[in-house]
Amino acid sequence: MTTLPAPPIASVTRQLSRRSVFEALLHRSPISRAELAKVTSLSKQTMSEVIDAFLQQGLVRPVGRTSGNVGRTAVLYELSPEGGHVLGIDLGARRLTVALADIAGRVLAEADEATDSRGGAWMLDQIARLSDRLARDNHTHPSRIRSIVMATPGVVNPKSGAIEMAPNITGLDHLNVVGLLGEKLGSPVILENDINLALLGEIWHGCAQNVDNVAYLALGSGVGLGLYVNGRLVRGENGAAGEIGYLPIGGDPLKAECRVQGCLEYEVGATGVVRRYREAGGSDVDSERQVFEQAQAGDPIAASVVDETARLTALAAATVIATVDPQVLVLGGSVGARPDFADKVARELLKLSPRPVEIRTSTLNRRAGVVGALSVALRRLHDEFFGVAELASVLPLPPPAQRSARQ
Amino acid sequence: MTRDADLCFAADLGGTKLAAAIADAGGRIVAELTEPTDPRGAAFVAEQIAACAGKLAHTVGIEVNQARHVMVGIPGAIEPGTGRVSLTPNIAGLEDFDMLGFLRGRFGADVAIENDVNLAMLGEHALGCASRCRNAAFLALGTGAGLGLLIDGKLFRGARGSAGEIADLPIGHDANGKVPSANGTFELEVGSAAIVERYQRQGGTSAATVRDIFKRLELGDEVAASVLDTTARWVALGLVTLQSLLDLELIVFGGSIGVRPELYERVRQSLPALFSRPIQILPSQLGDRAGLMGAAWAAGQALRQNIEFA
Questions:
Q1: Which of A229, A238, A253 minimises the CB distance to B247?
Q2: How far is B95 from chain A (nearest CA, A)?
Q3: Cβ distance B151 to A229 under 8 Å?
Q4: How many helical (H) and strand (E) elements, i.e. helices and strands, does chain B have?
Q5: Contact between chains at B240 and A253 (C-beta distance less than 8 A)
Q6: Using CA atoms, how far apart are residues A32 and A64, in angstroms rounded to an integer?
Q7: What is the DSSP letter of B286?
Q8: Interface contact B244-A320, CB threshold 8 A
Q9: Which residue of A has its CA nearest to B241?
Q10: Which of A122, A159, A308, B18 is deepest in the core (most CB within 10 A)?
Q11: How far is residue A309's CA from residue A248's CA, in Å, rounded to a whole number?
Q12: CA distance A224 to A216
């Protein structure tokens, strides 16, 4: 008689135990062993084994004792910042932002500077330099950074690693950005569309927490849309969902400029706002921000350009509402999140859409992309440590209350 | 295990006709019928659905209560959770009528209602031309315009069940006559009433329906051709909107106007000038039975799952 080899149940059980203890630590720190055993329904002995292993690995640390109760006090534990770090990067046309967080999702440090306008390799050097400085200033050895995610405009070509369709940043469409940046930072880098990450940022720490169905409309240098439905980003068949610059709104889609750049983008993108202001006889400006400032200062030409921009943005929002019926529509981006502008869009939308939707403005503003990058980097780290192949689910991220004070 | 004897009832309620069927657990239709929709409004229509079930049960030789699942397609938005129906201009009183409650009262608990175009999308996904797609839409063009959406392989209903209610899409002439896009809405450009009005405005000879206009086209009527060109261009702009938002693999054309090659071929021709990426269009393979077949398939699926997990 032969015996079959035992199935690897023990190891899966162990993985599940570790995972549930980690999840409890993520959401309930500081917490005692007894309390951990209670919330995870694990035996005291299993709990002790897991905690001892975590202590040895440097994943948890004691942070004091329970107090106030009669009887013996118990040691409280929390996730140790030494457990592993993640890096989030937001490469914007104008600003580069980098943030460092620990395994518990606490943002340890953040830095930003003007993006190197020379583009290409200079830009990649700048990203590496700023990341290194941030890690060094926080006494974090680069080897402890286990997961890196970067937000970028455009679309990443999965074959070449280059960033394409990003007209506002130069020289990255012929470089293997994924490969080169991974070498410079000493760890693989995941690239993701900046609008999608800004949306995930708002869902984790910003204005769209606990909403299942969110549309994020960003207006800044360009215009874009992120869609999040039932816990997932909507990407489309070729990753081009949300490219709303191409909506046939604002201009004649048969015109060559519209076909290349997209009708809506041609009108409401930063260069479109400046162009329309100049064409209408406005003073000499070189950024859309100046047009908005002129409008606030009482310049009637600037005011009418801003009004038209709000009207076109509201039309775009109305197409989103009619087609995907979001629970909440978030307005973001350097223009979109301006409260005066968002109010105008909301008023226009009331005239256009028979089905009013709740409109919120971004609360993370410029930080949305980097916070979203951190959230994805964190999920990947948790998955690397505690993913269980038999479980399709992902660990829920810790709530923003865990975030430490920003420097 | 499913047994061949397990049957379900499916119906597709439209503004002008009601189609109903009894199907097996595989979603295969074993008997079906079509009637003009009772024009007296929601309560009468509900009784009509129940009566159709009775007639079909008699044909097949079962009692109505032997239908183990019921799926009814409704021409409106259905709020998830409550089953409340809205946006149903074509059937009087449907918004204030508890259709789900009525059907449960008549058929028992295993009753579901679903947007009719969503069911047509499901039908094409399960049995028709969208069987290999994960991201697709079913565009129904007839009296009005509606969209059923399949995103990442699943029906996409929206937060309040009104995803794809594109009648209000702000794609149409604006008040200033500036073309394209602004305050006009999509249905006011591509709905059947808009097409007939456009034909009459351009001095076409007597045509009361879109069907008449298609007939005139066959006779070489230039006004009819021009009216369809204009209509197709608005439809194409609707598709550009859809692709910009959702990046779909395929858009299935259905509905009495949508399935006409005279229309969708014109849409195909006008797309390349309007959008830099290709957009794939196919006419509905299931035709005017897409909604009913989708309903039967969905009812059968519910039946199969119930039995598997019982």
A1: A238
A2: 15
A3: yes
A4: 10, 12
A5: yes
A6: 10
A7: S
A8: no
A9: A247
A10: B18
A11: 15
A12: 8
| ipTM of this complex | 0.91
Specify whether the CB–CB gap between B300 and B24 falls below 8 A. yes
Inform me whether the C-beta atom of residue B134 falls under 8 Å from chain A C-beta atoms: yes
HSE-CB of A94 using CA atoms within 13 angstroms:
9
pTM for the predicted model, two decimal places: 0.89
Name the residue facing A324 among B167, B245, B247 (closest C-beta).
B245
Alpha carbons A185 and B288: distance in angstroms, whole number? 58
Which B residues 160-179 touch A at CB under 8 Å?
160-171, 179
Per-residue pLDDT of B70-89, as tens digits, reads 999 999 999 988 888 988 77
Under a CB-based contact definition with an 8 Å cutoff, are residues A349 and A359 in contact?
yes
DSSP-derived 3-state class of residue A93: coil
Residue A381, classed as helix, strand or coil, is helix
Q: Please report residues of A whose CB lies closer than 8 A to that of B272.
A: none
- A240 at the B interface (CB within 8 A)? yes
Distance between CA atoms of A153 and A366, rounded to whole angstroms?
14
* Residue A169 φ/ψ, nearest 5 degrees: -120, 140
CB atoms near residue B264 (< 10 Å): 22
**Taking residues B153-161, what's their average pLDDT?**
93
**pLDDT tens profile B177-193:** 443 333 458 988 999 99
Q: How many CB atoms lie within 10 A of CB A174?
A: 11
Residue B114 is classified by DSSP as E
Tokens 């009418």 — which residue?
A: A304
Can you give the C-alpha Rg of chain A in angstroms? 24
Average pLDDT for runs of 10 along chain A of length 407: 50 84 88 90 88 89 77 84 91 94 92 94 96 91 90 86 82 92 93 95 96 95 92 89 92 78 91 95 91 95 97 95 96 93 93 85 96 95 77 67 42
Give exposure, A210-248, as e/b (b: 16+ Cβ within 10 Å): ebebbbbbbbbbbbbbbbbbeeebbbbbeebbbbbbbbb
Cα A404 from chain centroid (whole Å): 18
Report the C-alpha gap between B69 and B110 in whole angstroms: 5
